[in-house]
Amino acid sequence: MAAIEYLRTDPDLPPVGVVDRSPITPAKKAIFAGIGVLGAIAWAILALARGENVNAVWIVIAAVCTYVIAYRFYARYIEWKITKPRDDLATPAEILENGKDYMPMDRRVLYGHHFAAIAGAGPLVGPVLAAQMGYLPGTIWIVVGVVFAGAVQDYLVLWASTKRRGRSLGQMARDELGVVGGVAAIIAILVIMMILLAVLALVVVNALGASPWGVFSIGMTIPIALFMGVYLRYLRPGKVGEVSVIGNALLLLAIVGGGWVSETGWGESWFTLSTTTIAWLLIAYGFVASVLPVWLLLAPRDYLSTFMKIGTIGLLAIGILVTMPVLEAPAVSSFATAGNGPAFAGSLFPFLFITIACGALSGFHSLVSSGTTPKLLEKESHARMIGYGGMLMESFVAVMAIITASIIDQHLYFGMNAPGSLTGNSAETAAAYTNSLGISGPPATAADFAQVASDVGEKSIVSRTGGAPTLAVGISQVFSEFLGGASMKSFWYHFAIMFEALFILTTIDAGTRVARFLVSDALGNFGGPMRKFKDPSWRVGAWLCSLLVVAAWGSILLMGVGDPFGGINALYPLFGIANQLLAAVALTVILVILVKKGLTKYAWIPGIPLVWDLVVTMTASWQKIFSADPKLGYWKQHSLCQAAADAGKGCLTAKPDQVETAIRNTFIQGTLSIVFAVLVLIVAVVGAVVWVRALRVGGSETTESPEEPSKIFAPSGFVATAAEREVQKQWDELIAAGTVRAPGAARVGAERSS
Description:
The chain contains 29 helices and 2 strands. With 754 residues, it is mainly alpha-helical.
């Protein structure tokens, strides 16, 4: 058999795909062997070296080497044994192209959209908080977890959805698990989704509140994205390189311009907005981004923000390699076993794996992989690069986050991440508190905290909880050491805050659209007149479902903004558990699909992470529901506050006039913990029953959609091979002659009706 195979579906057209079966060369084998050895050395140093001389560079090396080996071999193994992509088959994007939700999108643009959609607050905030347990446990979970759990889930969900016309996770659960399991999955997914979106939105609102620079710069990404969408759709179809250069230049101009505008009187007046105003603007943006054609705003904006996301993280990695900072955090801290850490309560197992809610494994990603991405996938072969590769990139973001939290002074770290009830919200009391923790290094002073605040242009950095400010301090420390010096710390700090807000915002717009698809699929199951909702591009349904979605998460967001002690803040501790429970639903559906297809011998690939995820989440849920420790148990907190209300006293950190709010919040937390756990257990049990039934009969009927031949071409990898470039030239000539249309280009007067 020839090493290069050309796939044809029409004798009058050039090939629609190129398959390269060339064996790996000895030189490449030597390179991969060298990468493997270097990675093993890095892991050995991290695992065995102790003291204050472990360099952060070894974390970067260990992570990158692991990613390279995993993508080249483990992801390829999954491709060979399970997904088996065929580029001569049309994807849903080609079959159902309508210029709104379905359309073939350039693999590079789609990679940017997918990465921007999945990479939200989790890989930035979770690892920062988890650093209280030391740098080693979190690093191991982030890197090993993504290889065998997170990237596997994202890739296989994308594959399964693509084979089913881009069906949502909820609908796939309904189709594969039956009525009981499907309904439980749909309810769990929708409720969890609203909480996740509201929490992410609140992080953005708090980051942009009273920040004219951030509001202006992030606001400008919207018209820039609209321009890019029109450019690729109508002006210069297929010219991704051109629009990337233009968009990147405009983005940099918007960032620099934001700093200039914020220093003017009119800029400060126009763009200094209250958190309530920002919340309403965010709700409106979520609705508009959900109903507009995907090519016009959502995809180009996410692609644009990816430049900033990957660029900043890449620059941070270079900065670490250049400055070679020493890890101030211990490999494993005393809080890992004691479970009394100030950033969050609970021991290493299970709460480390809950706190790092993204970066290693994230249920939210399964919604994107079965939401917008499969409706835009140009070729089946792109799924590995976008699904598995996109998740590896997010994991690298999480690695950078845990490094930045581990290289700053540990007194500063705990002074920023401990709540005000412990630090006293002043530099003097924060210094006294952190000195009482037994942290290594010289004692902290009030002047130390004041100096850091002055360096980054803030009045105070004490108890700036949530992880984002800590990450910004770490980024400013690294960047200032090799880009501009100490005088630039304030600039880099505020740049990092804006970067984080942009990071999270792109998850909200894509998440709202994904939730719209979920609601549309769910309503379509009722049949009759509701069957029209089965078409996700039906305009009336799109508007109604989008309105329902933004009303749900928007109302929770406004509660949190209006009452920081209650509302969404009461739900924040559930963020990690809910996210990982969602991953259990996704992995259950994938496991059932594999068994039904007769691929039982490879069921361990999603099966192992599923079992681990269920053990972690159910243990965490049990402790949150039944623990007698008021730092952990929701119902214990509830009973204490109820007793305090009867006595007219305060409870925990709540003052007497806040006790009723605390009672309501702990009731919501405890109730939702029970509901989530029960729903996911139902899904898991039903999945096991279906799995056993299919196993006995050697598989069952597939729910995959009928295959159709492809009529378009695209290179399979990020960079086209020589053979692919030759084929691309043939297609370009036909496109230039008007014989065929470029994938994703406008169908002038001939777009399919939706």
